[in-house]
Amino acid sequence: MKRLSPILALAFIITACVSAEVRPYSADLDRLDEALERADEYVGIKEQKISTIENMLHSRGVTPLQQYNIYGELYKEYLPFQFDKAKEMLENQERLAEEMGNVSMRYDAMLDKAMILTMAGFFLEAEQVFEKLDTSAFDAAQKVSWYNVRQKFLHDYNEYVRTSSFTVPDAGKIAFYQDKVLEGTPEDSNLNRHMRILRMIERREFDRAYDENMAFIESLSPEEHDYAVQTYWQGFICENLERPDEVIHWWVESAICDIRGAIKDNASLCSIAIKLTNPDETDRAFRYIRLSLDDAIYYNAKLRKVQIASTMPWIEKAYTDSKEIQTRDRNRYLLFTTFASLLLMLICVYTVSLYVKGRKSAGVIEKKNRQLAEYTQSIIDVEDSLRKTNLDLVEANAAKEEYLGLFLSMCSGYLDKLRKNLTRDQYDAELRNFYKTFDTSFLQLYPTFVEELNSLLKDDCRIVPKEGELLNTELRIFALIKLGITQSSHIASLLRYSVNTIYNYRAQVKNAAREDRENFEEMVKKIGSKR
Questions:
Q1: Burial 345-369 (b: 16+ CB within 10 A, else e)
Q2: Number of domain units in the chain
Q3: pLDDT tens per residue, range 12-49
Q4: What's the domain range around 468?
């Protein structure tokens, strides 16, 4: 019997080795997590630097020209940090240039404004800025800026409307403008090198782009914003070259540079989250996507928030995989608990037999009792681990509810923005698909929701969806209430009904409650809570 404990320990070690898979990029992710722990510190440094520059505006004797330059410095600091503030700085520059009667300086500010509006996805506003510019009055540097802004605008706008029937005017001139940028800049300048690499990527010359971009990265400091940009593109190139481990490495490099520079307009962290599809990495992926969304909300550019919302299906898949692995681990712990219980019973029988037969001395019996206590403690430890696993599952379900509600709100808002670009039939089709997606996702989380809701209603008032439906309007209303969305105005916005209609539906169902109608919605929120 003395050999049972070492054998059991060996079995645990083998199991741990099988289940724990060390990935090549684990060290990179650990470095990223260390940088994220200091993110608030880097933001504080950025805010202190901005505050120092802003204080210069209030210095005695500051001329309008000096104010113009100070606003330019503030714009550079705010550009990757806060969209609204960066735009405000450019508008202040534009106002000062107009007061000084300096058209060239005003055009400089307007070109920067067109670029930031383009990067943030405000294409119509950027087009309005373009219409106010007189290109015949540009100097050489402004012409290069104009070509660069135009190629960026046409490229991003074309990508934004690709799935719609809308055609971007002058989209065929993207390559022309890019060539003009290359002609107007030195070959060793960052803009020229960046543009050459983008052209290689567009021509799918990924091997050549990899070598060129690697040389570019090596010439940059890890503290520069350009380093974050080029390492992100290096990850994109590696993705097309099917080098998955390098993809994560370069995106981690980009993300760390973004974090240290307090850059809120970033893409790398979200891209890493999408790549973490292994069930063991779901928690990390959720954390990264939540931080990316926080950054996007802080920066307040609509395009980045829409891009992050589009990643939710991948994160949902990772969650499903994680749930399966957690179930498998729970079954493993249950099996071990059963085995340990049987082992404890054998030890008890053996100990009693020793006592009855009197073959062993009191010291041996005491030793066996200590062994019994040790085995009992191991069972308690396993049970504690099992309870922790169950709590983790409950927390994971709560996170799923939160992100399902967030995903629903984002998709609904995105549909509203697309409405003007779709025909009525196309919009209705997208709306039906939106309802079907929500119904399917919700019922995967709460498969017995319809039955449990009907159990709260009188027999003659049960809600039964029509053939071919998963949920009808009444069920969707109370599904949203289950997810914590309780305001009738919010529910009406998501389901495209009037507030009065939603109120009437809620009142009608509550009146059909089997018991306490006043607490009916609270009982709905508790559906599935015991799973």
A1: eebeeebeeeeeeeeeeeeeeeebe
A2: 4
A3: 444 444 444 556 788 999 999 999 999 999 999 999 99
A4: 422-531
